[in-house]
Amino acid sequence: MTSIVLDGLVQGLQLALLSVGVVFVYGLGGVLNLAHGQLAVAGGLAVAILRSARWHPLLASTAGVVVAGSLALLLDRTLLRAAYARRGEERLLLGLILTLGVSFALDGFYALGAPNVALTLRMPSPSLEILGVRVRTASLAVGGLSLLTFAVLLAFLRGTRVGQAIRCIIQNEVGAVLCGVDVERVRTLTLFVSGVLAGVAALAQGFSSFLGPEMGTEFTILAVIVAVVGGVRSLTGTFLASLLLGLVNSALSYTVGTYLTWIVLLTVAVLTLLVRPEGLLAYWP
Amino acid sequence: MLRAAAPVAITALLLVAVPALVGGSSYGLRIASLTVIVATYAVAFNLLFGHTRQLFLCIGALAGGGAYGFVLLVRDLRLAPPLALAVVAVGVAAFGAFLSYVSIRRGFGVLFVGVVTLAVSIMFHNLLLGLRQYTNGETGLATRGVGFGLGNAPQEGYLVLVGVLVAALAGHQALLRSRHGLAFQALGEDELSAALSGIDVTRYKVGAAAVASGLIGLVGALYADVNGFISPSVFALGHVDIPVFVALLLGGMRTLLGPVVGAVLFSAVDEVVRPFGQLTVLTYGTLMVVLFLLFREGVVPAVQRVLLRAWARRLRARPTPPGVEGEPVAYVAAPRTVLPPEGRNTASEGGKASARDPSPR
């Protein structure tokens, strides 16, 4: 029982890492990034390739995260500019279609260029005994990595001027502009941060099982569903939704089969939307 | 009236002539059948997304529901094929209408409808895999000989599919030329204004969803019959929804012939890149991005514009040409794309300082 809950929490944290980036970009730019999972895969594959080139694990991981961030930056500076030139639903649609196209292009590129690359990060010992419960060290690593990332993220949002500007834009873009916030620059920074978060999520996936070139779409779908359930603009809501879906997922995979788990998981997500279309928490904390 | 019927009639003639053109090659006929199927899905998706802005990302699931429903009804419940086809079409239509109604009631915007229908299509996929005793899981079902037996007569199968497509096109045109056409036009441009001018938005959207879903379900069932084999992966998102989406964008949203032209172009591109395996996905993605950035309105509106310009030049050269003042090219003449050309919205407000998206829903 304890191990199921623990597993669920860790899965939830990993989901949160993946979806926070989507929430950020949507909240700030009004673009739902459907290539987010592919960014994560880019980071993960980069780490795997560098590892096979005998780079130090820490160095390779950092490089992978930077690769994911840079790819997001490139996306922002090139294609998404066209979307940002519009507003409201037009922007959303154009962003949706452009990022969907990018996600396919990247998927094809990975399948073509790195079909057999996969990322697995092994811990020195497979499991530990803590307070009488056997815990996978991988789970500890994922949990620690996620919590550390969120702590840094929160400190950044609460403590720095840029973080303040980000929260300001999420609340009201016009107001932020009137207060002298350079929306475009903050948006670019946010996309970079979301890419970095995707890279970290890829590392977490590498710890808990493995990451292959074909997993981008699955990541994107998970991230988008969690983000929508959590309320597309709320960080805390996303966090809660991730933990909820992580727990449901781990409890169900233990009791019923994989297929039914997916069905129930998605039903939970859809029902949450029906009951609270604003998401669990509608606004930023 | 005659002039208005010409585009659909010419399309029908061209499509009927295809079997003679491919010279009875079964491979060519198969590709043609698949193209017609994608075109029909795209007609339905045009009604859903182009006209009423309902981003249904479950076309594959609706089609698969039709296909599996049809096969199970005929094979296990021994229903007569025509009856089963009707039951399936009505059932899928009801499901689509339900999705649409719930979305409207809960005030979901484009994005949420997209996410909910995406969830529906993943659920459907897992349902097919899970209910192995009925669906045979990933292995799929052999459907040859079940139903009308079109799988053994590819020529007839192709003609039936063409018949459905032409009927759908004619229906689409009749609908838009009718009293309701104006309502659909208004809805597609601005929902709030449409509602304020007395259009029952809910009724039109749910109606459109029902008709489109019914059509998708029907074609899905026919696909099972013609193809002789169905499996979860032939109705997967990447196999149905994405080609349909790209075909519609390519051909031109909210145009009569856009879905057909787009499907034909898409099939042509697909044939060219197919030998390269994984290159196809890369090509689709790149194509989608490039097309949408540079060529947003689609092929049909662009061609129409060129033709109209040439026509206008001729008109200017001859002050009173005979027979031109009849019917104009009707609604297809100047469709507004969902995403207007650059500068339309931004000119007055300034892209950078624009107000942000008012609501995520």
Structural notes for this entry:
The complex is a heterodimer of chains A (285) and B (361). Chain A contains 12 helices and 2 strands. With 285 residues, chain A is an all-alpha fold. In chain A, strands 1-2 form a two-stranded antiparallel sheet. Chain A is globular, with a radius of gyration of 18 Å. With 361 residues, chain B is mainly α. In chain B, strands 1-2 form a two-stranded antiparallel sheet. The interface between A and B is large, with 60 and 53 residues.
Keywords:
heterodimer; A: 285 residues; mainly alpha; two-stranded antiparallel ribbon; 12 helices; 76% helix; disordered C terminus; B: 361 residues; two-stranded antiparallel sheet; 15 helices; 2 strands
Name the helix and strand elements of chain A from N-terminus to C-terminus, one letter apiece.
Answer: HHHHHEEHHHHHHH
Give me the count of strands of chain B.
2
End-to-end Cα distance of chain A: 32 Å
Strand coverage percent of chain B = under 5%
Sheet with the most strands, sense and barrel status of chain B: 2 strands, antiparallel
| Alpha-carbon Rg of chain B, integer | 21 Å
Helix tally of chain A equals: 12
Largest beta sheet: strand ordering of chain A: 1-2
The rough form of chain B would be described as globular
Mean pLDDT of chain A: 86
The greatest interface between two protein chains, and residues involved on each side, is: A-B, 60 and 53 residues
Multimerization state? heterodimer
List strands and helices in order, with pairings:
The complex is a heterodimer of chains A (285) and B (361).
Chain A: H1 2-29, H2 36-52, H3 57-77, H4 79-84, H5 88-113, E1 127-130, E2 133-136, H6 137-159, H7 161-171, H8 173-178, H9 183-208, H10 216-229, H11 235-255, H12 258-275
Antiparallel strand pairs in A: 1-2
Helix pairs in contact in A: 1-6, 1-9, 1-10, 1-11, 2-3, 2-5, 2-9, 2-10, 3-9, 6-7, 6-9, 7-9, 10-11, 10-12, 11-12
Chain B: H1 2-22, H2 26-51, H3 59-75, H4 81-105, H5 110-130, H6 132-135, E1 141-142, H7 154-177, H8 179-189, H9 191-196, H10 201-227, E2 229-230, H11 241-251, H12 258-273, H13 279-294, H14 299-317, H15 346-349
